[in-house]
Amino acid sequence: MGETSALELLVVLFGVVAALAVAAATIAWQRAARAAALARQEGAARRAFVELVDPPPAPHGDTLVSRR
Amino acid sequence: MSFGAALWVACVAAEVAALAAAVRATLRAAGPGKPVSRSGTASVIDGGARVFRAPLVLLLAFALASDLVIAGGRELLLVGAARPFAGLARAWWHVETLLVIAWPLGLAAASWEVFPLRPRPVRWPLAMLGAWALVLWAPLVLAHPVRRGAVAGVLLVAELAGLGAGAVAVARGWRYPWGPPHAALVVLLSIELVIAVLGPFGHDVFRSWAVLGRAPYAVGFAVVAAVLGAGGRRAA
């Protein structure tokens, strides 16, 4: 290993470790962001479904029952 | 074997492992297919066609071929040749420069093919990256011999262009599900960032970057092989 100094090798290895940490953080961040987006979508879909099968009463009691 | 030669062998071995893992992952993703003959010949041909169209496989094959060709050509034509290069040595030096420019731009092109799953992958950035490679390369050919600092500047511009285009591709694919090929490309882009920051293209602080520069690539390709292999085991 005569052609390289220990300091040079250390700097390069530090760079490689930093690069792998950046890659791992990017992948984890994307997974977390996507999971959150999916959860938001699922929540919105669930609310839409509930409103469809069990709609809230119209305001001021103006329902079919009250009109009768 | 010298330390530099050992690093080169480690780098090439990691490239072979990464390429094999990418081919396996592509064939696995293709599934068994629909054999139209009892021998299954059609599915084998179909799998082969998918492998040759897979951007990550093409990128890793280019990396391996490029490293082997550069090392062989340098040994045969450039070592001991008089400077400034002339004749065959000069022609080879231009080929080597084009291959060096092509790697970061190829990485960006593969990212543009892989990341934006929907809408359909776009093709115009590929043409732009190819044109950009020629724009950077042509002045080096026409103005030969150019001083070392100018070559380093051109290579740095190619690095930064590749990294920028790759980062845009990652951003475009941010909302879509990522698999092992996406993770592999993120690793390669991060390693390329280290090369651009520490490497000899801007201001070389290393006396022996030609040797040490192989270390990030060796580690990067080994991690890519592991990521693709682990993804396959999880899917199986």
Structure commentary:
The complex is a heterodimer of chains A (68) and B (236). Chain A has 68 residues and is an all-alpha fold. Chain A is 76% helix and 0% strand. Chain B is 77% helix and 0% strand. Chain B is globular and about 55 Å long. The chains are: A mainly alpha (68), B mainly alpha (236). Chains A and B meet through α1 of A and α7 and α9 of B.
- Give Rg of chain A in angstroms: 29 Å
Sheet with most strands of chain B: none
Largest sheet of chain A: none
The Cα radius of gyration of chain B reads 19 Å
Number of helices of chain A: 2
**Contiguous runs where pLDDT drops below 50 for at least 5 residues of chain B:** none
Oligomeric state: heterodimer
What distance separates the N and C termini of chain A? Answer: 95 Å
Average of the residue pLDDT scores of chain B: 84
Fraction in helix of chain A: over 70%
- Biggest interface, chains and residue tallies: A-B, 24 and 30 residues
Structural class of chain A: mainly alpha
Strand content of chain A: under 5%
Instruction: Please trace the helix and strand order of chain B, writing H or E for each element.
Output: HHHHHHHHH
Structural class assignment of chain B? mainly alpha
Average pLDDT of chain A, rounded to a whole number, is: 82
What share of residues of chain B is helical?
A: over 70%
Ends apart, CA distance between termini of chain B: 40 Å
Q: Which band does the percent of strand residues of chain B land in? A: under 5%
